[in-house]
Design brief:
The protein is an alpha/beta fold and 284 residues long. It has two domains: 136 residues, 3-Layer(aba) Sandwich (Rossmann fold); 113 residues, UDP-galactose 4-epimerase, domain 1 (Alpha-Beta Complex). Helix content is 44%, strand content 15%. The strands form two sheets. It has a seven-stranded parallel sheet, with helices on both faces. It has a two-stranded parallel sheet with strand order 7-9. α5 links the parallel β5 and β6. α1 crosses α8 and α9 packs across α13.
């Protein structure tokens, strides 16, 4: 039995889809906070079980019979270490032979604000005695392509990354890597630095959007405070705005760039290109 937490999220659904192409639905557990949102998965024969990271009592039943499990990191910043520990404990109690975890690029050395809880979770998994696979996901292409409408409307992409490069990949790429690890062999106690094949800058992103949209979109580099103010002015929550600012500043220092081929090697194909990601976004 393979258990996938956060199975109704954007990444989780892609992982379930990938697993369904490889193994019988009855061997998959979609562990979700709200089972009502997974009725479509249940209709396909997937085992849907309630699993709330903040309610450890739900996790024992969710992980019953687990052989391998994927812990998709929580999106609740500030409490993720405790939430993830509850999942680790449940996987260990169930006797899982492998716990895969969606971490962040170079979690052990990254200075990004997002990295601290990932690093702590990795440490806790190592100390649990479970066999593990750390899927250190880089930046998602969708982080840059899902809001292109506003950029096209205003003719500008705002950021504070300077000429920093993003070795981004798509959610589908990262999901495919997780599926490969969960359904393959020899991944025990491995650390994978997962990054896209062709890094790009925000200037390159603006040029690609301009070319495909048929209108000029420029990258407008802003100082840290100006970028923060702009994000808050757009109505973003302060915590989320701070993460975006910090991530761009980190990118300017190389934190989101990588030459690792781990992702391409795991999925057995090139990663999704920036051009394809922009094309998909503009058609949606």
């Amino acid at each position: 039995m393979i258990v996938v937490t956060g199975a109704t999220g954007k990444l989780g659904r892609l992982v379930i889809e990938g697993l369904l192409a490889k193994i019988p639905a009855g061997e998959i557990v979609a562990a979700v906070r709200n089972p009502e949102k997974a009725r479509d998965l249940a209709a396909l024969g997937v085992n849907v079980r309630q699993a709330d990271y903040s309610q450890p009592e739900t996790l024992s039943a969710a992980f019953a019979g687990a052989d391998k499990a994927l812990l998709i990191s929580s999106n609740q910043l500030g409490v993720r270490i405790a939430q993830h520990q509850a999942v680790i404990d449940a996987a260990r109690a169930a006797g899982a032979t492998l716990l895969a975890y969606t971490s962040i690029l170079r979690a052990d050395t990254s200075t990004l604000m997002l990295a601290a809880e990932h690093k702590a979770t990795e440490t806790n998994i190592r100390h649990s005695g479970l066999n593990f696979a750390f899927l250190r996901n880089g930046w998602y292409l969708e982080n840059h392509t899902e809001q292109l409408g506003a950029a096209i409307q205003h003719g500008a992409i705002l950021g504070a990354a300077g000429d920093g490069r993003f070795a981004s990949a798509s959610r589908a790429d990262f999901a495919a890597a997780a599926v490969a690890v969960l359904t393959g062999s020899g991944h025990e106690n491995k650390v994978y630095e997962l990054a896209g094949d062709i890094p790009y800058t925000l200037t390159t992103l603006a040029e690609e959007v301009s070319a495909q949209a048929g209108t000029t979109v420029s990258y407008n580099h802003l100082p840290e405070e100006a970028y923060r103010s702009a994000l808050l002015g757009f109505g973003l929550p302060a915590e989320f705005a701070e993460i975006l600012v910090d991530s761009d500043l980190g990118a300017s220092k190389g934190e989101l760039d990588s030459t690792s081929s781990d992702l391409r090697d795991l999925i057995g194909r090139p990663t999704v290109t920036l051009a394809d990601a922009v094309s998909t976004a503009l058609k949606s």
